Amino acid sequence: MKKILFSIASLCFLLQLKAQETVYPAPKQSGTIVITNATVHTGNGQVLNNASITIQDGKITAIGSGSNAPAGATTIDATGKHVYPGVILPISNLGLVEQGNVRASNDEREIGDWNPNVRALSAYNTDSKVINTLRSMGVLMANIVPQGSLLAGTSSVVQLDAWNWEDAAVKTDAGMHFYMPTLMPRPRFGGFGGGAGAPQADPVKQGLEQIERMKTFFREAKAYNSVDNHEETNLKFAAVKGLYDKKQKLYVHANTVKQMLIALDFVKEFGFDVVIVGGSDSWQIADLLKQNNVSVILNQPHSLPTLDDDDVDQPYKTAAALQKAGVTYAINDDDAQTRGRNIMFNAGTAATYGLTKEQALQAITLNAAKILGVSDKTGSIEVGKDANIIISAGDILDMRTNNVTDAFIQGRKVDLTDKQKQLNQRYNHKYGIKQTF
């Protein structure tokens, strides 16, 4: 029996040697790396042909032309390839949820409606299998967001090549997340859930009461945080202090005009820096959002419109409407099946419905960095910024040609191996199929 158990254990160990767990975070960059002969999409609207990028100590130190490289530098010839800033996933439960239908692998939500002191970062799992699949597609950073029914806690921005959450953190606790009540009556189906004669609560009234309680909470928190010394610490009040001194942003998860107008009340009364998450009907009040300096993260452009009277392709056109109005916006991929892997294709769809390709790229790079407060470090290919760069054999916004061949996070060349690639290689080997890409 012991021999059998030992054999099983040995087999498991051998299998693990070939598994994704052996993909280690890259060490700190040493030496100089030069990417040459590339078509560089800077992320700020510019495209540089036959360009070179020099990387030293994790930073972009020079952007030139041709194939010139200093002696001793590691050279990567990107002839015929495209170079982009690393894609940023602005709203994600990455590292908090592994399998949606496996409760033990979910750590995205706390009990109760009022959890401003919850930090999503502390639960972030850098060993998630999903992370490697995102890197393979060119996603190098993500904003890790807690879920909830009202005030869910803080989000943090992480880079996707780290040993633990401390290593991963780029900007911590910079976003407070408020899930706006729907403020819409729900359909009632016969006797289900309490019987046909059971009284039905008014969701609009309930929602407005919750919003008023939220405003009361913020008023009390403002008074609390205006005093330096306290006999007793209130963790919930202390957690929102950054909203008043603009060190934090209030991310309001809302889709309808009614919800977003209430979000503007928080701007007017408290002076918060507000970001709308979802924003499917934001095109209707784009000018108002611009006037109040409110940004928008379009959570899932590949979806049906919110209202029956909207154009069926309205979600595809919303980004262009916000662009025209001058609203700062980013594009996301909130699909529970793709887990962020289609973010660049969502941007590609927006490029078909009114945006230019460079504007669509900016919506998943520099714009996202601006909204998340990390544009001083990343989001575009500019001298002085972190070398978060991807190289693709084709257009990353095009599902047919997207093929990321190299990726750098803070100048470190990261391993693009993932579980899906390993399975592909496994069964190609089994059936003697020649690799075609």
UniProtKB/TrEMBL annotation:
User: Where are the membrane-spanning stretches?
Assistant: none
- Gene3D superfamilies from the entry? Metal-dependent hydrolases, Urease, subunit C, domain 1
The alphabetized UniProt keywords are: Hydrolase, Signal
A single Gene Ontology MF term assigned here is: hydrolase activity, acting on carbon-nitrogen (but not peptide) bonds
Outline the extent of the Amidohydrolase-related domain.
320-413
Show the SUPFAM superfamilies listed in the entry. Answer: Composite domain of metallo-dependent hydrolases, Metallo-dependent hydrolases
Signal peptide start and end residues:
1-19
List the protein's name. Amidohydrolase
Question: To which species is this protein native?
Answer: Flavisolibacter tropicus
